[in-house]
Amino acid sequence: MTVPPLPEGEPAPTLADPHMLLEGYLDHYRRTLVRKAGELSEQQLRSSALPSGWTPLELIRHLTYVERRWLRWGFMAEAVPDPWGDRGPDDRWHVPEGLSSERVLAEFEEQCARSREISSSAEPAQRARVGGRFTTEKEAPTLAWILFHLLQEYARHVGHLDVVVELAAGRTGE
């Protein structure tokens, strides 16, 4: 099952399949994240505009790892080197010195493509495999739960990025 690509915006209001809705909204938020990041200069991507101290590039890298942790390591139980690699020594989001913004965005896009493959090849009621993030069948969530969790994470973080873009460029909204 693949969600048809949309130029921009939310999935069609006539879409009723819950799996396709989850995938469609995830892609909507992924596209929105990349578009909003594209409104920022290199300096703005690497600087924090908020008291919490995170940068937009750190946020993008964090979401790359969130998808990796939940879908590759979690749902598929793939061996993922350093699943918490988005965190620095102080346990805050981190982009290693010398990692270009282009590479951070490319890794994000690569992970999103892999996430789409995983999601489209499984049923929403399917439980995560044991052996990766989850060690027992009892704790393994369904794909639907994971996708909904990712959706709320994106909704929150894209909202955060919207504030940063507003502070940097004066633009608001989707």
UniProtKB/TrEMBL annotation:
Protein name as it appears in the record: DinB family protein
